[in-house]
Predict the structure.
Amino acid sequence: MSEARGCAPWAMEWIRPAQPDTLFISSITIGEMTAWHRASATSLIAAYAAGSVTPVDVLDAVLARLDAVNPALNAVIATDPAAARRQAEASAARWRSNAPLGALDGIPFTVKDNIVTAALPTRWGCPVFRDFQGERDELPVARMLAGGAVLVGKTNVPELTLMGYTDNTLFGPTGNPWNPALTPGGSSGGAVSAVAAGIGPVALGTDGGGSIRRPASHTGLVGLKPTPGRIPRCDGLPAILLDFEVIGPIARTVGDIWTVTRALAARDARDPASRMLPDLGAMPPARPSRILYVPRFGAHPVDPEIAASVAAAARHMADLGHEVSEGPPPFDPDEVALIQSTVSAAGLAWLMRERQASPAAAILQQTAERGAAMPAADLFQALDDVGRLRRTMSVFFETTDVLMTPSAAALPWPKTESHPPVIAGQPVGPRGHAVFTAFANAGGLPGLALPCERSAAGLPIGFQLVGPYGADAALLALGLQYEAAHPWADAWPAG
């Protein structure tokens, strides 16, 4: 097992291969270099079946890519290359025998460092968990491995995954492949940085307030925050964000997101929420949808380039035959922010009391102290507000199919700073960049992040589609339709 830390500067630009990587069988060749690390999971499975490449070849390409770019990015913080090679060799043998375990057999993947793995430590970005080693894999990881996927490593997180950028006292900051001086966001910052740089086509992340969707938007990727229970969980870390936090996939294409979600979506009695949902089934066709486009939440500012890009995406949705209207959100964003703040403070205070410890970051120390001093009635009020929000959204989705917003209010900012202090000329607090996403978590709703037109400087921008409880497949069908009309998979950062 090895660990990595680095923060050297890295060139920013983007280049286009000769063709997108969706559903191709041969490798991508750039000059004289065969770039299997750029292949999607879907295309790799096709290539394995055709005998064009083996899982060992692909792992070698991914590990070479990790060695080349991770010192500058600090995305992956723990690996076991020997174990990964054994997994890849076993997968290659199954493919030779025409007996793959499923749609993920031989696919390299990374795991966010707040998702428990038995083979690698789970530090949660926090000195309190410096020596934590799980006895068994958390259920989604166990399912990935049982399906033959190849574990490349663990990805970096902010301390206790409670901040919107990725830095901690154990491993340091993670950079954005599109400009490594900038943050990829958080808390799934290491996960998106790895996928965007080609360190595996898919990653498992978590989303407790937007921690998949915002980082995906900052790195040009697709990210799914599933309905609670859609990807069942057990054997994980303490649930300090209740059911607000879910595990979801991060990838370059909607097809890969669908493939991973299907592989992980079977019900499990150890997660009762999973038994409340119908089977995922097959991908439905995209149908004409009633979309409410919400360009901003009240007086909260949005970067002008983000606003323009997402407005263009809303027009593209209308061009695809959807009924797009514009208006305010059907809830109070400030009330949602208070819910999120109350639950996270109470959860952190509980965790630190259980561990008889304190976080390293000063802002988290303050949050834990606030949570410990909070009256129980405040938490009960927040939970009552959650119930009211969920009822409001259930009624809202009777007459609207999808709510569309920007994924983040700000473009990426310097990677060692917790947040941008100013957005569109207006001073903002630590969550000013994150205003758009938390309602889906508190509301128990699925959300899909998709890329749209980049900024003038070439930085990625994204938008999110949020649907009613259980509508994960419908969102992915809509995302697949949008991706086919406005593809992004051939855009890569340089390096």
Remarks:
- Confidence is low (pLDDT under 50) at residues 2-27.
- The CA atoms of residues 234 and 250 lie 20 Å apart.
- Residues 333-355 form the longest helix (23 residues).
